[in-house]
Amino acid sequence: MDPDLVAAVAAVAGGEKLNISRFCAEHGVSRTVFYKYLARFRKEGAAGFLRRSSAPRRRPTTTPPRVREAIVRARKQLAEEGRDNGAISIGWRLEELGVVPVPSRATIHRILVAEGHVVPQPRKRPRCRRRFEYAEPNGLWQIDGMEFYLAGGEKVCILQILDDHSRLDVGTYAATSENGEETWAALQQAFAGYGVPVKILTDNGLAFSARHRGGMAELERRLAATGVQAIASTPYHPQTCGKDERSHQTLRRWLAKQPPPATLEQLQQLLEQYRAMYNNRRHQGIGGHTPQQRYHATPKATPTKAARPPAGTTQRPVTSTGVVAFSNCSIVIGRRWAGHTATLHWQGDRVSIMINDTVVRTLTLNRSVRYQRLTPQLSTTS
Q: Which Gene3D superfamilies match (predicted)?
């Protein structure tokens, strides 16, 4: 504040004569400003010279206090239910409750920050920019297992099967571990409820795939017989199965708010409740639709022909007894090849074994026995 202006205003207010027009011209102040401060000084005294806020007296677009309270209350309720309680989910909850107006996602986030419920974080650069989504339901399912501990401390496994297009949880099953038999049982139940998909994507767990280890897992063999193409992600790249990995987070958050199950049966009951909730709640990844709605919105993909069995090439050493170990089988090729390295070309259970440029044996693996004899054993009768 200009000291000369303060002195002049105080003098005029005290009754002194002053050429206000000349004073304003000499000090670069408009007569309007001079008379404004003169009126303030006469009314408020010295406080009339203090700078005042330029903020508007009314803010018509300000979120009403009742809506702000509803936002905070909805965030707390969603957290207690074990659901996502971010800005988008809060907005959907306000719609369900009939709150009007429903603020935008940015406004909800801003209110949560102002209320101290959210600490702003810098935006993270995505690790992977390549995304995929199959165009039809049942075009691809993803299956993966996650560890879970029962109330008594026993470690078990939860197998989750997700439809890639709709994010529908087609099966979530409690298992003793991530093993082939229970995985196949879980898939059979999913097939019975939703049909057979064209492809199934897994990671490289021992129960799911042996392709990157130069063989074929029992699950891959069964899927091929059913007409389903089994595909496996790149080793050490969990982003390929990212939809299932993200679904694990949602399931863990929900289970953390439920009574701890003591048995697999109790856990399975909780998983059925979770599936009913998950499949019928709005999903951010599919435009706010529910997985159930999106799964039934378009025709389902179906396998058009029998899936081609997995194939590959691998190398195995030949033991001193002339045996090659492959795909849980011991294949006899003869002692003359002991110490050599054999190259195996395989597709399904059909195997050709080469050493250097010589094909030493071609066979179809007999899965009923482990030891694959060089010549069939003749049956004898007494």
A: Ribonuclease H-like superfamily/Ribonuclease H
Domain shared by 330 and 270, yes or no: no
Integer Cα distance of 158 and 148 in angstroms: 7
CA distance 114 to 63: 13
* Tokens at 379, concatenated: 């049956």
* 8 A C-beta contact, residue 233 and residue 201: yes
380 torsion bin: left (phi>0), alpha (psi -120 to 50), beta (else): beta
Element (H, E) at 345: strand 341-347
Q: Which residues pair with 215 in a beta bridge?
A: none
Share of the chain above pLDDT 70, in %: 95
Nearest-angstrom CA–CA distance, 1 and 279? 65
pLDDT at 378: 41
Per the structure block, which two tokens stand in for 226? 């059913």
Does residue 55 sit within a domain? no
Residues of the chain scoring pLDDT < 50:
377-382
Q: DSSP per residue over 134-188, as a string?
A: -SSTTSEEEEEEEEEE-TTS-EEEEEEEEETTT--EEEEEEESSS-HHHHHHHHH
Segment 183-213, tens digit of pLDDT:
999 999 999 999 999 999 998 888 888 776 6
Cα 312 from chain centroid (whole Å): 31
Domain with 323, as residue range(s), is 311-372
Q: Are residues 202 and 270 in the same domain?
A: yes
- How far apart are alpha carbons 373 and 168 in whole angstroms? 47
CA-based nearest residue to 316, from 240, 213, 230:
213
Look up residue 210 and give its amino acid. A
Tell me the C-alpha distance between 90 and 70, whole Å.
9
Please check whether residue 198 lies inside any domain of the structure. yes
pLDDT, one tens digit per residue, over 247-298 is 999 999 999 999 999 999 999 999 999 999 999 999 998 989 999 999 999 9
The identity of residue 188, as a single letter, is Q
Domain boundary among 234, 266, 295: 295
Work out how many domains the chain is built from and give that number. Answer: 4
pLDDT of residue 381: 41
